[in-house]
UniProtKB/TrEMBL annotation:
Keywords: ATP-binding, Nucleotide-binding, Translocase, Transport. It comes from Arcicella rosea. This is Putative ABC transport system ATP-binding protein. GO terms for molecular function: ATP binding; ATP hydrolysis activity; transmembrane transporter activity. InterPro entries: AAA+_ATPase, ABC_transporter-like_ATP-bd, ABC_transporter-like_CS, MacB-like_ATP-bd, P-loop_NTPase. CDD domains: ABC_MJ0796_LolCDE_FtsE. Belongs to the ABC transporter superfamily. Macrolide exporter (TC 3.A.1.122) family.
Length: 220
C-alpha cells in the first residue's frame, strides 16, 4: 500500500544542514493499522508528510499501490492525495466561518461531484463519527473531542483507502482520546489502512505494529 525505500530528508539553510530522516525503509500493507512513536523532533511528522505526498524526500523512493511517484507531476500528486489519502491533524484545521457540514465537504470540492452528492456524503461521514446532530454548528461551538471527530469525518468523506493521523489525540484528555482511537479502530476494521503518529504507548499497543524513530532513524 505504502512503501518507502532508503528515505532521507535534509533541511538546509545557508549555514546549517539538518538530517531529519535517515535511511527509512517502511512497507505498510493494505489494511494495517501502524503507529509511529518517538521523542519530539525525531522526524515523525516529517515522515507522515512524506507518506502523504505533502513533502518530498531528499533521496529515496516512495510507492503507493506499487506505483513509484517520483515522476508524478504536482497535478498527479494532488489527484492521488485527494482520491486515496485522508489526513487528520492534531490541531484540527477547521474553518471557523463554515458550518461543520461545510467543513466536512471541503475535500469533495476538488472532485467532479454534484452539490447534492457532496452534501449526502458529508452527512454520512458525520453520522459515522456520531455528530449527525451537530451538522449546522460551527467549530467554536464544539469541544476539542467533537472538533477532532469533525476532522475525522472530513478525512473519510471521500472514502480514502489510506488515513494518516498526526497526533489525533494529542490535544485531548484520556477519555476523549480513547473515544477517538475507537473510531479509528472501527475505520480500520472496515478496511482503511491507517498510520498514526502518537506519544501514547497504550494507544500504540492497540494497533497492529509500532515503528519507533530516534533522531530521524528507525530504531525498531
Amino acid at each position: 500500500m505504502i512503501k518507502l525505500s532508503n528515505i532521507e530528508k535534509v533541511y538546509q539553510t545557508s549555514n546549517i544542514e539538518t538530517l531529519a530522516l535517515n535511511n527509512i525503509n517502511i512497507d505498510i500493507k493494505k489494511g494495517e493499522f501502524v503507529s509511529i512513536m518517538g521523542p519530539s523532533g525525531c522526524g515523525k511528522s516529517t515522515l507522515l508528510n512524506i507518506m502523504g505526498l505533502l513533502d518530498e524526500p531528499s533521496t529515496g523512493t516512495i510507492a503507493i499501490d506499487n506505483k513509484p511517484v517520483e515522476k508524478f507531476t504536482d497535478k498527479d500528486l494532488a489527484y492521488l492525495r485527494n482520491q486515496k489519502i485522508g489526513f487528520i491533524f492534531q490541531s484540527f484545521h477547521l474553518i471557523n466561518d463554515l458550518s461543520i457540514l461545510d467543513n466536512v465537504e471541503i475535500p469533495l470540492l476538488y472532485r467532479a461531484s454534484t452539490n447534492k452528492s457532496r452534501r449526502e456524503a458529508a452527512k454520512e461521514a458525520l453520522e459515522k463519527v456520531g455528530l449527525s446532530n451537530r451538522m449546522k454548528h460551527f467549530p467554536n461551538q464544539l469541544s476539542g473531542g467533537q472538533k477532532q471527530r469533525v476532522a475525522i469525518a472530513r478525512a473519510i468523506v471521500g472514502n480514502p483507502e489510506i488515513i494518516l493521523a498526526d497526533e489525533p489525540t494529542g490535544n485531548l484528555d484520556s477519555a476523549m482520546g480513547n473515544e477517538i482511537l475507537n473510531i479509528l479502530l472501527q475505520l480500520n476494521a472496515a478496511g482503511s489502512t491507517i498510520v498514526m503518529v502518537t506519544h501514547d504507548e497504550n494507544m500504540a499497543k492497540k494497533t497492529h505494529r509500532l515503528i519507533r524513530l530516534f533522531d530521524g532513524s528507525q530504531v525498531s
